[in-house]
Structure formats: C-alpha cells, structure tokens
Amino acid sequence: MGYADRDSGRAAAGFPSGHAGVLAINIKQKIEAANAEAFNRIVSADPVLVDIVPAGEVVPGLEDRMVLHSGPPVDWEHMGGAQKGAVIAMTIFEGWAGDIQSAEDILSKGGIKFDPNHHHDAVGPMAGTISKSLPVYVVENRTQGNRAYCRLVEDEQQFGNYSAGSIDGLRMWRDVWAPSLGKGVRHMGGLSLKPIIAKALQMGDELHNRPNAASSIFAGAMGVPMIEAGVPTKDLTSTLSYISGHDLLFLGLAMASAKSAADAARGIEYSTVVTAMARNGYEFGINVSGLDGQWFTAPAPAIDGLYLPGYGEGDGGFDMGDSAITETVGWGGFALGGAPGILSLVGGTPEEALNYSREMREITTGLSPDFAIPALDFEGTAVGIDIRKVAQSGVLPIIDTAIAHREPGHSIIGAGMVRPPMACFHGALRAFAAKYALE
Predict the structure, then answer these.
(1) Which of helix, strand or coil describes residue 204?
(2) Is the predicted pLDDT of residue 230 greater than 50, yes or no?
C-alpha cells in the first residue's frame, strides 16, 4: 500500500491523516501520560491530621474581615439564601456585627471580603464559611508535602442558620472542642487518616453523607491522647461527648484529606483530570489539572432528594458545598455501592447504588489500589474524572449531598443526589483545546 492509500485508509477509519495524525497521536500520548501522573498523585496521597488551630494562623491568604465560602467565586448579590445566612452568622461570630440587621448592612455595603475556599487550599461543607477565628483541621499530604484545611461539620450554621444557638455551636468549637482535640493531635504527633478511610469504606461508609464508621474510629483514637496531653477534665468530658455523638464528624477530615490529594494533581500540563468540583448555591464549578487556576461554571442544579418533615421541593435551595471534593477523589457518590445504609437518607435502592459505582468507571482514569468496596468484589473506587470521557460518554459524576433551604435562617432540610451540569465539562474541553492547540 502506498502512502496515499495508507492515509486514505486512516481517514476512512476515523484517524487524522499525515502530519495531523502524527500530531494527534503525540498529543493523545501526552494526555494519557499526564492523566496517569495525576491519577498516581491522587492515589498515593498520604493524608495526616497534624493540627487543629484557628484558620487565621494557618490558611494561606486569609485576611481580617474576610469570609471564605464554598464553590467558585460569588458576590453577596448572587449568593443563595443559605450561603447568605451562613455569612451573616460568621459576621456575628467574629464580632464584626452585633446582630443580624447590622451584619446584613455591613455585607450589603461590601464591608466583608469574600473568596472561595479552594483559592486558599481549603474546603468547607455546604456554605463552607471559614473566617480567621474559626479553627480548622490541618491535614498534610506526607507524599507530596502539601497541606489542606477544612472547618467543622454541623447541621445548623453551615446550612444558613444564624440563630444564637447555631453561633454558640461555633463558639464551643473555637473555645473548647477544637483546642482539646488539637492538644491530643499534637501530643500524638499527628494522626494518619488513610488507614481510617480504607477501613471505613469497608464498614459501609462512603465518606460524604455517611462517614459514621470513620467518625467512630476517629473518636476512639482521640480519647487517650487528649488525656495524656492534659486536657482539663471539664473540657475533656465536653469534647468526648461531642465527638462520640457526632456521626458526621469525620466529613471535615475526609474533605481535607481529599483536598490534599486532589491538589497534589494540580497543574500537570496536558492532564484532563478534574481536581475540584464545588458549588455555592448559584453556580457549579470544576477545576482541571491541565488548566490550573480556571473555573468552568454553569448554574447550580436542583437536588433530587428526600426532605425532612415539614419541607418539600419548593423549599430546597440549589446545590451547594465543597464536599464534592470527596467524589473528586473517588469517594461519596462514587463509593455508594458499598454504602447501602445511606439510601434511607438520599433515596434509591442498593442495586442503583452499585450501578452508580460501576458507572463512574466509565469516566475515570483508574481504580484505587487502596480503597476497596466489598460489594464490588473488593475492587477499588473509581478515581480521576476525565473531562474527555464525561463529554464522550454523556455520563456525569454522581454526587450525594445534603439540601439547604433556599432562604436564610434554616438548618438542614434534606439530602439527595445530584450531577454537575454538562456545560462545565464542555467549557473545560473548549479551553483545553484552545490552550493546547487542538482545534
């Protein structure tokens, strides 16, 4: 066969011909190599809890009179009701305002600066609000050396509740629980989180809306170190009571662990692997390794879920929170097949849960060598969302999530399932093509 016939055959088979074909193959090889590197960085991450301290002491770039929030950038005008409520609560918590009305006045006049958590190596559940006095988990990825931060998880203020009781919960975290836990963590020289995560995934957790087993393991690991560190009896008793009865306690640690793993995969040239999925109740945004520093956004979707008594679909706000960082690294909705207990919260059947986990393999780079799901023959969770595979297959990542009210002033009202808008992935692909001259 001559060269002309060969190129004609390649074109008929759907391959670029001649020089263009060589370039296309070369670029594809670069993408595959870059994605393999991104995958390896994510799965090799070794998250260790090294401290719990006020955010202002450790979170890079966190300024006074600044509130970090979940999702891509958003201003006060476009914030959803729940996120506005949470920001109001933080403004009162920090002492920048004495009541709800004065907080709203300050916020509406631009008196507080906003920035996404993800711009500061941090993540936060639901509204995701972090300010200087709020203690955060400090998680170090010992493999790559980077750190990530996450705030506490609760079911009131982070959902937009600005009542005195919800703010008192933040004060207890600041004044008693976080300092006590921090003393224990420092006394033990840090707590490795990867073994806890691996064990919990085999105990029915998916580490997003059901971190119950991980929370119990963590609580059990902290008692003796706090005693040995000399935590006063009153504070110790209060903290032990808090952590032993908090089923969602470990979510903040799972999120920081996931962030430390995903951030290790940022900035790899030619990689099409997603390094963040985040929502703020107004927009859903993704980050991509080979397009570091750019957000690809679309309107935040509604959540298909179950509501607590007294609430219904008309009450629910749009999708919100940084907690989809867990799905970004293969947990959460990607691990639903091993967490049937969560279905009573988010809806669905065990078979549907298994199918979600299987489906995610179609859009990812590989399977985790460390985080196995017993119900799937102990195969690993799907890791490394590839924007090309999402666009080509039409399969979108599955996320299980809580539901906040569309108006400020409420606590959690439900939970359910959601998928990102396809427009996020199409936008990322267009930007990728432009950057790497693929058009």
Answers:
(1) coil
(2) yes
| Residues 119, 190 share a domain | yes
How far, in whole angstroms, is CA 416 from its chain's centroid? 16
User: What does the pLDDT read at residue 402?
Assistant: 97
N-to-C CA span, the chain:
30
150 three-state secondary structure: strand
What residues form DSSP beta bridges with 306? 415
**Nearest of 94, 175, 177, 180 to residue 129 by alpha carbon:** 94
The structure's pTM equals: 0.93
- 387, two tokens: 């924007």
Q: Are residues 86 and 233 in the same domain?
A: yes
Are 186 and 229 within 8 A, CB to CB?
yes
- Please give the residue range of the domain that contains residue 292: 266-435
3-state class (DSSP) for residue 250: coil
Please say if the pLDDT value at position 17 is more than 70: no
Clarify whether residues 276 and 236 are in a common domain. Answer: no
Q: Which residues contact 358 (CB under 8 A, 6 or more apart)?
A: 337, 376
Question: What per-residue confidence (pLDDT) applies to 22?
Answer: 55
Last residue of a domain, one of 208, 233, 255: 255
Q: Residue 215 pLDDT > 60, yes or no? A: yes
- Distance CA(38)–CA(290), nearest Å, equals 10
How far apart (Å, rounded) are the C-alpha atoms in residues 225 and 223?
6
Choosing from 228, 255, 282, the residue where a domain stops is: 255
Cβ neighbours of residue 225 under 8 Å, at least 6 residues apart? 184, 185, 187, 188
Whether 161 and 402 have beta carbons less than 8 Å apart is answered as no
pLDDT(10) > 70:
no
CA–CA gap between residue 286 and residue 298 (Å, rounded):
9
Of the candidates 326, 344, 346, 340, the residue with the CA atom closest to the CA atom of residue 417: 346
- DSSP notation for 323-371: TTHHHHTT-GGGGGGG-GGGHHHH---HHHHHHHHHHGGGGEEEEEEEE
Dihedral of the alpha carbons of 62, 285, 411, 344, in degrees to the nearest 10: -130
As beta bridge partners, residue 136 has 53
Task: State mean pLDDT over 166-181.
Answer: 98
Q: Which residues touch 2 (CB under 8 Å, ≥6 apart)?
A: none
- Do 242 and 291 fall within a single domain? no
What's the CATH number where 149 sits? Answer: 3.90.1710.10
* Same structural domain, 240 and 336: no
Give the pLDDT confidence score for residue 13 in this predicted structure.
Answer: 34
Q: Helix H segments across 202-269?
A: 212-228, 233-244, 251-263
